[in-house]
Please model this.
Amino acid sequence: MQATKTKSERAQNIKGVFEVNRPDWIAEKNVLLADDLFITGATANEVAKKLKMSMAGKNYIYTLGRVIVVKGLGS
Model:
């Protein structure tokens, strides 16, 4: 579960998870990535790297929510 990990743990945990099976389908095309929650950007960053390697056009991310951590509040 990514929710309990630190930013560096998230990045390490997601590394190498995604693969573009048909790069010819996305070459020079714009891609929209839909994700439920943007916390550290580890998922979006890893997917963007793979899309760039596959010669995709512009990459966009759409999320339903974003987590903002405010230090010193809560427990």
Observations:
- Helices lie at 7-14, 23-26, 42-53.
- Strands lie at 31-38, 59-66.
- The chain has a mean pLDDT of 86.
- The two ends are 21 Å apart (CA to CA).
